[in-house]
Write a structure and sequence with these properties.
By secondary structure, the protein is α+β, with helices and mostly antiparallel strands. It folds into two domains: 3-77, Ubiquitin-like (UB roll) (Roll); 83-233, 2-Layer Sandwich (Alpha-Beta Plaits). It has six helices and ten strands; from the N terminus they run ββαβββααββαββαβα. The strands form three sheets. A five-stranded mixed beta sheet has the order 2-1-5-3-4, covered by helices on one side. Strands 6-7-10 form a three-stranded antiparallel beta sheet, with no helix packed on it. A two-stranded antiparallel sheet has the order 8-9.
Length: 238
C-alpha cells in the first residue's frame, strides 16, 4: 500500500493512502474529538464534531470521511473549529432533554464530557423540551429517547457486529428517532437478540440497564472492542 505525507497542526506525518484523516491522526497520536464515530463501526458523519480545516478549501470537512492526500495541510484546533464544536454541543443539549444531575450516565457520558471539553458553561439557544417517550418494555434494558443524540451507534453495531438490524432511524428533523423493528416496543422486537451491544455502544444515558440509578450506568466499551477485534480476525470468542 502506498504512503502519503501530510501535516496535521504543523506536525508532519505519514499515512496509508486511503486512510481517513481521523485514522491518520489517531495513528500519529493526534486527538480529533468525535461523538458518532466508534472504532470498528462504519463512519456516520452525523455529529460533525470531527470537522477539520484543510488548506486551500473554504469548506470544513469531516475527518471520519475525508481521505488523506499527498501534501495535505490540516488544522484540527483553530478558533473557528472550536466555536463550531461548541455550537454543535449546545444545539444537542437544546434539542433534547439532558439533565445531567439526574441521568443514569452522569459522569460516564460522552456528551457531558464533550460539553466540558468545549467549555460550554451555558446554552445560547432556547430549549425545545420535546415530548419524548421512555421504552422499558425490554427485559434487560431501556431506551430514553430524551437523551438520544441520534449518533446511530446502536443502529450500526446491531447491524454490523450483531447482524440483527433491530434498530433503525425513522422520521425527519425534530421528529427523527431510533426505532426497534417496525416502530414497536423494544421488548416486542422479534429481531432483538438481547446481546447488549447497543448498550455498550451508546455514548449517553439513552440506552441503559434496567435497575440503574443516577450515575450508575457505565457502558462496557472494552467488551465491545474485544468483540470487534474478534470479528475482524474471524475468531469469535466469549
Amino acid at each position: 500500500m502506498s504512503v502519503v505525507t501530510l501535516t496535521i497542526n504543523q506536525q508532519m506525518i505519514t499515512a496509508n493512502a486511503g486512510d481517513t484523516i481521523l485514522q491518520a491522526a489517531k495513528d500519529a497520536g493526534i486527538k480529533i474529538p468525535t461523538l458518532c464515530y466508534l472504532d470498528g463501526l462504519s463512519a456516520h458523519g452525523g455529529c460533525r464534531i470531527c470537522l477539520v480545516e484543510i488548506a486551500g478549501s473554504t469548506k470544513l470537512q469531516p475527518a471520519c470521511f475525508m481521505k488523506v492526500a499527498e501534501g495535505m495541510q490540516i488544522n484540527t484546533e483553530t478558533h473557528k473549529l472550536k466555536e463550531y464544536r461548541k455550537m454543535i454541543v449546545e444545539l444537542l443539549f437544546a434539542e433534547g432533554n439532558h439533565t445531567c444531575s439526574i441521568c443514569v450516565a452522569n459522569n460516564h457520558c460522552e456528551l457531558q464530557a464533550m460539553a466540558m471539553a468545549v467549555e460550554m458553561d451555558h446554552d445560547r439557544f432556547d430549549y425545545i423540551h420535546p415530548p419524548k417517550e421512555i421504552d422499558i418494555s425490554h427485559q434487560r434494558f431501556g431506551i430514553d429517547h430524551n437523551r438520544c443524540i441520534l449518533c446511530t451507534r446502536c443502529v450500526r453495531v446491531c447491524d454490523e457486529i450483531e447482524g440483527a438490524h433491530t434498530w433503525d432511524v425513522a422520521g425527519r428533523g425534530g421528529l427523527a428517532k431510533v426505532i426497534a423493528d417496525l416502530d414497536q416496543p423494544w421488548g416486542e422486537a422479534d429481531s432483538c437478540t438481547s446481546c447488549g451491544k447497543c448498550f455498550m455502544a451508546c455514548p449517553t444515558g439513552a440506552i441503559f440497564q434496567k435497575g440503574d440509578s443516577v450515575a450508575q450506568t457505565e457502558h462496557p466499551r472494552n467488551k465491545l472492542e474485544s468483540l470487534v477485534m474478534a470479528k475482524d480476525k474471524k475468531q469469535w470468542h466469549v
